[in-house]
Amino acid sequence: MDPPPQPPAILIVDDDPDILALLRFLLHNLAPTYDVLTAADGPRALAYLAGRPITLLITDYMMTPMNGLQLTAAVKAASPTTHVIMITAYSSALLEQRARAERVDTFLAKEAMFDLKDVVRRVLGLPVQTED
Questions:
Q1: Phi, psi at residue 47, to the nearest 5°?
Q2: Does a cis peptide bond (omega within 30 degrees of 0) precede residue 65?
């Protein structure tokens, strides 16, 4: 007998545990039919990806041992259909250009994180809600 199919997954990667907890809470409420997974760094994120498909990756840019661009490149090489949202406090036109080159779907400055709910809804095809 085959195991039951896994629900689609969202993976959040950030080295700040408070950001991980906040985003996990937000996304669990926004997309309750998705598994919301968290990882503190790129290698842990790639370990998740090796074990199951990830529909959406939300990653910080500034992390070690690999930054968000390096993580995105590795994720897209393994799973080209995974959507990627990159969030950073170090926003610049050059960084955004590099993110687009790595096929980041949406690039958000941390000060614009209030847009994250709308971006996630759009990427996952969830209905837009007017009352949040």
A1: -65, -40
A2: yes
Please report, for the chain, the start and end positions of each structural domain, with discontinuous segments joined by +.
9-119
Q: How far apart are CA 46 and CA 109, in angstroms?
A: 24
- First vs last C-alpha separation in the chain: 42
Q: Where are the beta strands (DSSP E) in 1-132?
A: 9-13, 35-39, 56-60, 83-88, 106-109
What type of residue is 57? L
Q: Are 110 and 41 in contact (CB under 8 A)?
A: no
Distance CA(66)–CA(62), nearest Å, equals 8
What is the SS3 assignment for 29? helix
Q: Are 90 and 69 in contact (CB under 8 A)?
A: no
Looking at residue 53, its amino acid is P
Backbone dihedral angles phi then psi of residue 59, each to the nearest 5 degrees? -130, 145
Class at the top of the CATH hierarchy for domain 9-119: alpha beta
pLDDT tens across 58-85, in order? 999 999 999 999 999 999 999 999 999 9
Each residue's pLDDT tens digit, 87-113? 988 888 899 999 999 999 999 887 776
